[in-house]
Every structure is written in C-alpha cells, then in structure tokens.
Amino acid sequence: MKTDTSKTGLNIRNMSRRQAMQSLGLLGVGATLSACVIPAMAAKPDIDVDVLNFALNLEYLEAEFYLQAAFGRGLSTADSGGGPASTGGRKLTYTGQPTDDAVKAYIEEIAIDEENHVKFLRQALGSFAVARPKIDIGGVGGAFEAAAKAASNNALAGFDPYANSLFFLHGAFIFEDVGVTAYKGASPLLTNPGFLEAAAGILAVEAYHAGEIRTLLYSQKDVVAAAGLKVSQIVQAISNLRGSVGGGKDQGILNMPDNGKANVVPTDENSIAFSRSTTEVLAIVYLGGMGKGGFFPNGLNGNIK
Q1: Which residue range is the domain that position 29 belongs to?
Q2: How many CB atoms within 10 Å of residue 123?
Q3: If pLDDT is split at 50, 70 and 90, which confidence band does 205 have?
Q4: Claim to verify: residue 16 and residue 152 sit in the same structural domain
C-alpha cells in the first residue's frame, strides 16, 4: 500500500518503523487492548467478554481446519487453552483443479491468519478466554460428511474435504461466509470501541478469505465434482442448507434470479453483507442440533452456546 505523505503530513522515511506505525494507527488495537482494556475487563466481565469468546470458538474451528489441511497440525497447547485436540483433520492431498499452487498458497495464508486471530483474541480476553472446545473436522464419518449429506439429500455421502483441492474449497465454503455474517451480526453487541475496531478488522480479513474461496469455486463452477453435480450446484446446496437453519441469509456463487451470472460477493438488495444472530450461527455450526452437534459435538465453550 502506498502512503501519500503530502496528505498525511508525515515523513515516514525520517521516522523509525514503530513511530511511523504509531502515527498511522497501524500498531492498532493490540496496543490499545493491552494498555487499556484488559485491566478493566479483569475487574468486571461484561457482554464484550461473551461476544469475544463466542468469536474465539469460531476462530478455534477455522484455525484447526486450515492448520490441519495446510501443515498437518493444529493449534499449540498454549493457543488452545488446554482444550481437547480436534478430531478428523489431516493434511490436504493436493490433486486436481484449481491449480494446486494457488490453493496451497491461499490455504497456508488463511491458516496463519486464523491462528493469529486465535492468539489475538486470547490475548485480549486474558484470563477470561475459554479453552478450545471439542471440535470435529472429520471427512468420512465426521462433521463434513454429515454436512455434505444433509445438503445433498445423501448424494454426497463419503465427502472428504482433505481428499483433493476442489473438495477442500467446498469444505472451506461452509465456514467462510458464516464468519463474515457472525462478526457483522455481533458488532452491535460490543460496547468497547477498541474491541469493536478489532472485530471490524477481523471481519474484513474473513471477508477477504471468503472472497478467495468463492472466486476459486466460481472458476470451476461448471466442473462436475461429485455425484454428477457441478461445483455451482454443490455450492448452492450448501448455501441452501445454511440458509434453511441460519435465517435464510445466504447465496451461492451464481445469481440465480439474474440468469446465473457471477455472485462472488453475497449481499442484500442494498449490496450490504448479511448479519446473523448468534442463534443463527450456532444452528449452522451445530448442523441444526440443539445446543451441540456438527462441528462442535459438545457445544461451544462460554456463555453464548
């Protein structure tokens, strides 16, 4: 990113990197949180703690999924808060289209982003951070196959997101749009400006991730991926399932009312991203279960579960 110093009045070249970042606000929320917010939270937990722990649970899920696929590992013991290891994940077998180099690059970048989100939220929450709950990211016999079967009326039995690059993108699609709508839906609940700014920053990154996944899937929209179904049809089936339990606020990669044109960016009629309530998000990650199930067999940790 280029900085127009004539507008900012800053001479970056004559400043230390830290000074420049401070002047441009790029040290960001982390410094603000550690200096100001955590001591107040330590004295009086509030709704912000519950909301951030809700977000932390979702970040645990995404981090485990991407880290396992990219590197064959999960979060460290310290970053998991001592919670149980996730089950079912493994390193992705890079085969098929889209090109493996592109998928590998995207997945590794997203994995590190999600791991950093976990670290950031745990640092912000301090002693109030919940531990990683039990997480199921398994393919055959696991939560992903259950989701695929539910979306396709059992046509996608045996679905395994780690089997090839294209299947992995379908698995990633299940999560990414949900993260965006969850952060947007939770934003009005946050009372601390520092946390709200941090949540907005994470939302933006999750939206970038979702855009990457949706773009790769759109590039393969006419490929018959499994069970005689095209990529666009499988994506639409996943979208329909999420919409059926998550408030109807969902879209596939084709704009069906508009002759099937590209729909890489899902929005409402005002081109604004959808918001989901915590109840709607839980219904999706629990795969319709009540209080637990799906990707969280024992439910989330924390007060919002």
Answers
A1: 1-44
A2: 13
A3: very high
A4: no
